Amino acid sequence: MRITRLSTHVVGTPWRNLTHVQVHTDEGLTGVGEARMLGHTDALIGYLAEAERNHVIGSDPFDTEDLVHRMKYGDYGRAGEIAMSGIACVEMACWDIVGKALGQPLWRLLGGKVRERIKAYANGWYTVERTPEAFHTAALKVVERGYQALKFDPFGTGTMELDHAETMRSVSLVEAVRDAIGPETDLLVEMHGRFSPATAIRLAGLLAPFEPSWLEEPCPPENLKALAKVSTHTDLPIATGERIHDRIEFRELFELQAADIIQPDISHIGGITETRKLAATAETHYVMIAPHNVGGPVLTAANLHLAACTPNFKIQEHFNDFADSAIKGVAPGLPEVVDGYFALPTTPGLGVELDVEACAEFPRQRAKFDLFAEDWHLRDPERTGATSAE
């Protein structure tokens, strides 16, 4: 079997464009991968066009190790977010083909299951006014839907520091959410790399009474020693990693013992196998893995297969029950979250099939997502200024 061509299909929403890559073969089997790029969709598609000519066409989709190695190192320059995302889409699609060819769900080809179901946490649910009352009501809807975990960023436009009034407002939002969801539901606090170590440490102390299950990206991702300082000064678990695009770059994070949970994004770190290798390294450092996932059903499916067979997996992020739920129709087949858990996929490959006609119903957008803009959390096209790219 040989790869004959790639095709791309962009599904647009006001705050994110989802790029789907189909890998076509000479035996008629087609696989699909997906990545969400913020502001770099053109760059990703451009990279894929060159990689298709230079590396992909003529490759055996079963030889994913060789293909990933050639795509990563065969262009001499250091692979960053764009290249690693392109590699991920192609690798993901190749695994989809392999599963279909063998008639097996992917997790069975990666070592088999270590769990019967996969815990999910909701994100994208707090598109409401930034008041305790509104957040309380929105959080109730999450637990009423059966979720046993949710994540949110309560910090508005906070950057490096947070003044007293905004600090108290942010803490009040966390308090309101904890009151709504009760003591048993996981409350995950997102910090989006906003703060200096001193501010992050102060906030960790104020949030500790509400028992968050982790603090995510308390500091900007470039300086891991700053993150280690935060970790040293709080008992709360620290999570990070979505903006690290090469598993080798996690080495320093492990050496510093700066995080308790890593959050690689399968679609930005080179694919399923690269993430699995990273998870194995994390396991040797007693670190859990909770993959970042802002994608649609294809990327979510890839995450589920990884979760099924990874011993140190913790929990899976999921947006599309609350943000842009209609896009679930572009790739039917993904299990729904029931009582807070995904069931394992059971159909061959990734278990989802891209519907190209459905993709066309969501034209590409000039998507904008500025985490430091007022009311960014609303993901409102009127506020972001996003329009159709056509």
Brief characterization of the structure:
With 390 residues, this protein is an alpha/beta fold. Helices cover 37% and strands 15% of the residues.
Keyword list:
390 residues; alpha/beta; Enolase-like, domain 1; TIM Barrel; 2 domains; four-stranded mixed β-sheet; 13 helices; 13 strands; 37% helix; globular; Enolase-like_N; lyase activity; lyase; Mandelate_racemase_C
Total strands: the figure is: 13
Helical amount among residues, as a percent range?
25-40%
Tell me the name of the CATH class of the largest domain. Alpha Beta
Order of helices and strands: EEEHHHHEHEHEHEHEHEHEHEEEHH
Radius of gyration: 20 Å
Strand arrangement, largest sheet? 5-6-7-8-9-10
Through-space gap between termini:
36 Å
Helices and strands in order, then pairings?
Blueprint: E1 3-12, E2 17-25, E3 30-37, H1 41-56, H2 64-73, H3 81-102, H4 106-109, E4 117-122, H5 132-144, E5 149-152, H6 164-181, E6 186-190, H7 197-207, E7 214-216, H8 224-232, E8 238-240, H9 251-256, E9 261-262, H10 272-284, E10 288-289, H11 297-308, E11 316-318, E12 337-338, E13 341-343, H12 356-360, H13 381-384
Parallel strand pairs: 4-11, 5-6, 6-7, 7-8, 8-9, 9-10
Antiparallel strand pairs: 1-2, 2-3, 4-13, 12-13
Helix pairs in contact: 1-3, 2-3, 5-6, 7-8
